[in-house]
Amino acid sequence: MKTGLVLEGGALRGLFSAGVMDVMLEHGINVDGVVGVSAGAAFGVNYVSRQAGRALRYNQRFAGDRRYCGLWSLLTTGDYFNARFAYHTVPSEYDLFDNEAFESSPVDYTLVTTDVVTGKPYYKSIKQGGEVLYEWIRASSSMPMVSRIVDIDGMHLLDGGISDSIPLRYMEQQGYERNIVVLTQPYGFVKKPNRLMWLARMMLRRYPALLDVMAHRHEMYNEQLEYVKKRESDGAALVIRPFDTLPITRLSSDPAKMQETYDLGVKAAKFAFKL
């Protein structure tokens, strides 16, 4: 029986998930496969490469660095999180990602992106580290309206959370009968319609299928939450979620809030695994 790890996104809220994964690494809690969306993809690779603490470390280190993220990067490059520095320079020069460990890991790694032409999710399984991996992570993490569309292999891609925010069904379809699902919103959370759809329709008017998915994303997300609850009650999924709304915003640059969010993930994991 294969066990999977499902990681939703949420930008800096994903540091909650990083705390959960670091507890899993520390206590030898292993899975056969990981699927990550957006921040879940960016931080989930560190579970596969067994680099506990890395996600928190580099986000705190570069929180105030305009080369990494922020309005300066958005205005000068078109990406809030700098495409070159955040996704390629940091893992290659400043906080090295262990590509050898990633490639030799027995854990299968898949990330989710959204095809902006079709509006459908595209699932990419990756075994090769380095620049190829980093660029796919960038595609999965590129939030609409604050990121440029990422072109890979003839496809035009954005954040996977647009089209499949919590890919539990996907993992089950791949044969993972038991899954650990890490959410970044507390029990009872209900997503509301996107208040910036008017702006999205201006900026992304060339992609009507994408706009349709974005307009109905709250419905998809809320339905997925209900499915997660059902699988949890069936005993097919262990769900780890914050006990309350996380203290961090998606685009926070506050290292203290990052630490607090990470620590809440550690606490929730220890509670869930009875450690």
The arrangement of helices and strands along the chain is EHEHHHHHEEHEEHEHHHEH
Quaternary structure of the protein: single chain
The helix tally amounts to 12
CA-based shape: globular
Structural class: alpha/beta
Uncertain stretches: none
Q: How do the strands and helices of this protein lay out in sequence?
A:
Blueprint: E1 2-7, H1 14-26, E2 33-37, H2 39-48, H3 54-61, H4 71-77, H5 85-94, H6 99-104, E3 108-115, E4 121-125, H7 131-141, E5 150-152, E6 155-159, H8 168-173, E7 176-182, H9 197-203, H10 208-215, H11 217-234, E8 237-240, H12 255-272
Parallel strand pairs: 1-2, 1-7, 2-3, 7-8
Antiparallel strand pairs: 3-4, 3-6, 5-6
Helix pairs in contact: 1-2, 1-12, 3-12
Description:
The protein is α/β, with parallel strands linked by helices and 275 residues long. It is built from 12 helices and 8 strands. It has helices spanning 14-26, 39-48, 54-61, 71-77, 85-94, 99-104, 131-141, 168-173, 197-203, 208-215, 217-234, 255-272, and strands at 2-7, 33-37, 108-115, 121-125, 150-152, 155-159, 176-182, 237-240. A hairpin with a 5-residue loop joins strand 3 (108-115) and strand 4. The longest helix is centred in the last third of the chain and has 18 residues, at 217-234. The chain is globular, with a radius of gyration of 17 Å.
Short summary:
The protein is α/β, with parallel strands linked by helices and 275 residues long. The protein has helices at residues 14-26, 39-48, 54-61, 71-77, 85-94, 99-104, 131-141, 168-173, 197-203, 208-215, 217-234, 255-272; strands spanning 2-7, 33-37, 108-115, 121-125, 150-152, 155-159, 176-182, 237-240.
